[in-house]
Amino acid sequence: MAANVENKQIDRQGIIHILVGILVFGSIWGFFEATLGGFLHMIIFPNKGAIMGGIGVAIMASALAIYKKPSMLPGIGIVAASFKLLNVWFLFVPIGAIHIINPAMAIIFESLAFSLVAVFVMKKIAKNAFIGVGAGVLAGIISAIAWVYFAIYVMNAPAYARVVFTAGGFIANQGVVQAAFFGVFVPLGYLVGEKLATRTLPALTGRGVPHYATSAAVIVLCWGISAIAIMAGL
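Now predict its structure.
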């Protein structure tokens, strides 16, 4: 009986540890989306989506190296995508607006695609950087295909497709660029995660009260700075 209770406590601690990791890494990704992403959008920087997606997949790769849990990656994407709600809360943008839904879904598709690929190659990425490159390229193409068809058909915007891009044109252009960025950022992010895992960093790799306190501070800081950035016009 005592052993069963102890095992349940260990399982519960493991679940909490994963959930905290999802919140921390998702908040870090969301922070970059709200700040750097907002700035790149403001100055109309080329390939902003591919750049921000690359940063996001690097953050997920770091989490993968630390936790070894591909199943947590969609959760990281959902947390990051939820930062788009800051525009709803502070700028009163309609939640159903294409400028909210489309980028949020891009983040979620990226996390789903990388999670799917990581299930099959996670152990190989650690041994061979070229596997990481291939995983990134594949995740980039899959997420680009999923997003463009969602943007055109699920959002029911045929005029948007005709004026801005076609599905095939987007995949051949932006999809390839995104795949290239993902191919570079996945092995880099995984390497960073491996380095972090060997160090004493309570917010990312630790357990216990210091870990949770530091993690909470990181999460609050990411959301707070992001809110200020969005209200400032980013």
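The mean pLDDT is 87.
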